[in-house]
Design a protein that fits this description.
The protein is mainly alpha-helical. Helices cover 87% and strands 0% of the residues.
């Protein structure tokens, strides 16, 4: 009977560790999705947005980290290129 109580205590302690991890994971997921959806990139490059959304959702904690490390800059570059083209077209 004592072993059963010990197992229950171990399970409870694991849950206490998993709850903060789940909260951080959820916050990272939402932050990454909001960031991706707010990026203004050319319409012909929307597949890049869709791919990053899939990566962020499927790769749980690692996906948002990869997005913020790599993808955010890539989407910013695409957005900047689109603005440069628009500015060039307006100058002519």
């Amino acid at each position: 009977m004592q072993a059963m109580y010990e197992i229950i205590e171990i399970i409870e302690s694991i849950w206490m560790l998993l709850i903060p991890i789940a909260i951080v994971s959820f916050i990272l997921l939402i932050a990454a999705l909001v960031s991706i959806l707010r990026k203004d990139i050319p319409k012909d490059r929307t597949t890049d947005k869709i791919l990053w959304i899939v990566v962020v959702i499927l790769l749980d904690i690692i996906g948002p980290v990869i997005y913020f490390a790599i993808g955010s800059r890539k989407l910013d570059e695409l957005s900047q290129r689109d603005e440069d083209v628009d500015n060039y077209d307006n100058m002519r």
